[in-house]
């Protein structure tokens, strides 16, 4: 399948994109180059190649989310500029 300038113009119109005649021509050339490369890839023999989602072996590096003892409240508030009723007190940022 070959993409021509009219195809690009139609998609641009549907997408409400304004393009110059030079841009329409350039995108048609670029899209055809992409399709030609996809055709080359489609000709490769991939029998016996497992489908993959990533090219690198990735693993989750996050630890399990477990409840653990935390910093005592008094110690957490020890260096707070201002505290009230056991909580950090911060400046009001919204009117209302």
Care to describe what's here?
The mean pLDDT is about 95. Strands 1-2 form a two-stranded antiparallel ribbon. α1 (about 5-15) crosses α2 (about 20-40). The radius of gyration is 29 Å and the shape is elongated. The protein is built from 3 helices and 2 strands; from the N terminus they run αααββ. It is mainly α. Helices cover about 40% and strands about 5% of the residues. It catalyses: L-glutamyl-tRNA(Gln) + L-glutamine + ATP + H2O = L-glutaminyl-tRNA(Gln) + L-glutamate + ADP + phosphate + H(+); L-aspartyl-tRNA(Asn) + L-glutamine + ATP + H2O = L-asparaginyl-tRNA(Asn) + L-glutamate + ADP + phosphate + 2 H(+). Pfam families: GatC (PF02686). It is an enzyme of class 6 (ligase). Keywords: ATP-binding, Ligase, Nucleotide-binding, Protein biosynthesis. Heterotrimer of A, B and C subunits.
Give the SSE map:
Elements lengths: L4 H10 L6 H22 L30 H5 L5 E2 L2 E2 L8
Antiparallel strand pairs: 1-2
Helix pairs in contact: 1-2
InterPro entries: Asp/Glu-ADT_sf_sub_c, GatC
Keywords: ATP-binding, Ligase, Nucleotide-binding, Protein biosynthesis
Catalytic activity: L-glutamyl-tRNA(Gln) + L-glutamine + ATP + H2O = L-glutaminyl-tRNA(Gln) + L-glutamate + ADP + phosphate + H(+); L-aspartyl-tRNA(Asn) + L-glutamine + ATP + H2O = L-asparaginyl-tRNA(Asn) + L-glutamate + ADP + phosphate + 2 H(+)
